[in-house]
Write a structure and sequence with these properties.
Order of helices and strands of chain B: EEEEEEEEEE
Number of strands of chain B: 10
Number of helices of chain A: 0
Shape of chain B: globular
Radius of gyration of chain B: 13 Å
Helix content of chain A: under 10%
Largest sheet of chain A: 7 strands, mixed
Distance between the termini of chain B: 36 Å
Order of helices and strands of chain A: EEEEEEEEEEEEE
Radius of gyration of chain A: 14 Å
Largest interface: A-B, 26 and 25 residues
Distance between the termini of chain A: 40 Å
Structural class of chain B: mainly beta
Strand content of chain B: over 45%
Oligomer: heterodimer
Chain lengths: 126, 107
């Protein structure tokens, strides 16, 4: 069964750091495009970051320079290292696999997101 | 960045009604448009990908159409389990933005 399980969320003070993990089963993380998406309480979905199978990474402007997406092929796990956390980073963080993704002519298209993990809540507050 | 305008933001409908949700993008994205359903406390679930392809296991009452900048999600006959929030998402260019969501409530 294809499954994603996020861990690592919690309460953290502003300015602090946290690393989220997303353990995959039923498929190989390194062979897929993988994403992080977040949802602030009562708000909509916000795409955060993608790592392509080739290793290229992209970020939303709101987290660029503070968050780093990575993967551990031996553990089949995706990570999101979050530094310099702010109150506005408070959200449920989901990891999601891309399907149908491809690169052509210098551009990459991630396709669609399926499946998603159950999410992990990050609360940034003093 | 590509802006996503989803409408309406909420709607009330009855079981059996036909429901249409629209998503407009600020520039052409060809067919790189996906639709998700989210129920309270749950992760989003893929319904439609590439504008009009039905995800495996999703009931055929859901359908998607459109290309370029204008897209539509249609539920042909609303069922009790369809009351949820629906999001469109473009996968044409980073950042892979989502629409603001449409909350479908019971009338």
């Amino acid at each position: 069964e294809v499954q994603l399980v996020e861990t690592g969320g919690g309460l953290i003070q502003p300015g602090g750091s946290l690393r989220l993990s997303c353990a995959a089963s039923g498929f190989t993380v390194s062979s897929n495009y993988m994403n992080w998406v977040r949802q602030a309480p009562g708000k909509g979905l916000e795409w955060v970051s993608v790592i392509y199978s080739g290793g290229s990474t992209y970020y939303a402007d709101s987290v660029k320079g503070r968050f780093t997406i990575s993967r551990d092929n031996s553990k089949n796990t995706l990570y999101l290292q979050m530094n310099s956390l702010r109150a506005e980073d408070t959200a449920v963080y989901y990891c999601a696999r891309s399907l149908g993704g491809y690169c052509s002519g210098g551009s990459c298209y991630p396709g669609w997101f399926d499946p998603w993990g159950q999410g992990t809540l990050v609360t940034v507050s003093s | 960045d590509i802006q996503m305008t989803q409408s309406p933001s909420s709607l009330s409908a009855s079981v059996g009604d036909r429901v249409t949700i629209t998503c407009r993008t600020s520039q052409s994205i060809s067919g790189y448009l996906n639709w998700y359903q989210q129920k309270p406390g749950k992760a989003p679930k893929l319904l439609i990908y590439a504008a009009s392809s039905l995800q495996s296991g999703v009931p055929s009452r859901f359908s998607g159409s459109g290309s370029g900048t204008d897209f539509t999600l249609t539920i042909s006959s609303l069922q009790p389990e369809d009351f949820a929030t629906y999001y469109c998402q473009q996968s044409y260019s980073t950042p892979y933005t989502f629409g603001g969501g449409t909350k479908v409530e019971i009338k």
